[in-house]
Amino acid sequence: MTSAFIALLLAQATPALPHQMPGEDAVDPYTVSDANAGAAPFTGSGMAEAFHGQDGIRRITARFADLIYADPVIGEIFMGHDKVRLSRTLFEQFCYILNAGCTYTGRDMVSAHKDLGVQHADMNRLVELLQQAMREEKVAFQAQNRFLSKLAPMRKDVVER
Amino acid sequence: MITQTIFKKAVKLASATLIAAAAFSPLSAKEIRGGGKLLLTNGITSLEGSSGGGLTPWAVIAGNETRDGIGISAHGTIVELKNYDYQSGGVSLGLFDTVELSYAKQNFNTNEIGALLGLGAEYAFDQDVLGAKVKLAGDAVYGDPMMPAIAVGAQYKKNRNGAVVRLLGARHDEGVDFYASATKLFLSHSILANATARLTKANQLGLLGFGGDKHGGYSLQFEGSLAWQLSRRLAVGGEYRAKPDNLGVAREDDWYDAFAAYAVTRNVTATVAYADLGSIATVKNQRGLFLSLQASF
Asked: Which of A125, A145, A156 sits opposite B187 (nearest CB)?
């Protein structure tokens, strides 16, 4: 009881590090930077509104993560990888790029996808699942594509060499 | 005899391309993986059998494969013009999303005009087209937003009506077109743009032979497509194709169309277009409906 109380106090005293968040598997330390998101954010509030703000982005990334882990094509790739952490960092990344008021604390795209063995077909499948999640949130198709235009240049960092 | 020559050329073309494919294939020891392309990103099958728009090739490769696999596609196209009917069908092979080999058989029926031309009603021109295309650089969807996919290709065309096209003034009944295409989907605007430059001697695709009394040799022609993506499955747009004008007796005009392409499933794309093909074989204002169905795996 006492030790749990002390742990709680400690947790409050020292803010959780992004590579060691409660409820997530720890990952090797890295330098936190918005630049790790891999794309410059949109300017203005148009895109954040098109994605229904942080609430909409949270629904999209949660659904996206569910679809990824359940997918017969790419689910296997992510098996054994921390879904809680993926959901959080995806939310931060999307929220940051859409200029919806977040900072990105995850790893850069090369480190995050290292050794996953992602092929072009897997990348395309990821895009399809993201399109499904955005469609279910009723994000306009043109806005979906505008967002994808920020992600498309990242393929070289995501797929295996 | 002619068939043998074509077959030999096809074998030569295929073996050269397979060697090229082997050189381009990133990891030949790895497992071949089928499918995986995004919807509509293999385009549709153009009149001459190369993947692209309806009228012009794009820097995309036939089939549903990615750089890790092999894909195939087949198509059937009909064009119902004011005075003529056109149909074509063919098959294509896509290797590692890098090399495309295609075959198309074209049939152009003159209907009643055939009689006026002294050829007999329902006289038809036939042509076989063997195509090869290599994607050299870039990507139509991914990568640098300002770097298009770039491809070069050739189309060997053999007209089956040699005697008649020579009577019309054509110099040859066979020819090779060479082209280079650049294609990019500008995701931030949902716009796909393609530009193609073609060296050709062909009269009306080669259906009226190659070269003529007005101009005998190659000329450089520009072709362009612009498409707007409305959903994952649907794109609408327009195309332009400049054409040579080699025959004194039969003026040839540039071509235009407005199209809608719909990915019915992952394997089937249907296209409907309204095409303005201008003057063909002495008869002006040839406009009509273009319908095409493509199956790809």
From this structure: A145
| Angle CA A141–A142–A147, to nearest 5 | 95
Q: How many CB atoms lie within 10 A of CB B187?
A: 23
Among chain B residues, the shortest Cα distance to A147 is held by B188
Residues of B in contact with A125 (CB under 8 A): 36
**Distance (Å, rounded) from C-alpha B218 to C-alpha B296?**
33
Q: Which of A57, A81, A59, A60 is CA-nearest to residue A69? A: A81
ipTM for this prediction: 0.89
Distances (CA, A) of B121 to A76, A130, B111, B113, B124: 62, 56, 5, 7, 9
Q: Which of B255, B182, B247 is nearest to B216 (CA)?
A: B247
Instruction: Give the nearest partner residue to A141 out of B139, B144, B231, using CB atoms.
Output: B231
Cα A44 to Cα B54: distance, rounded to the nearest angstrom: 39
Residues of chain A positioned with their CB less than 8 A from the CB of B230: 141
Find, in chain A, the residue whose alpha carbon is nearest to that of B143: A153
Query: Does A153 reach chain B within 8 Å, measured CB to CB?
Result: yes
Radius of gyration of chain A (CA): 17
User: What single-letter amino acid sits at B51?
Assistant: S
Task: Return contacts of A66-74, CB within 8 angstroms, 24+ apart.
Answer: A67/A129, A67/A132, A67/A133, A68/A126, A68/A129, A71/A125, A71/A129, A73/A121, A73/A122, A73/A125, A74/A118, A74/A122, A74/A125, A74/A126, A74/A129
Tens of pLDDT, residues A98-141: 999 999 999 999 999 998 999 999 999 999 999 999 999 999 99
DSSP secondary structure letter of residue A15: P
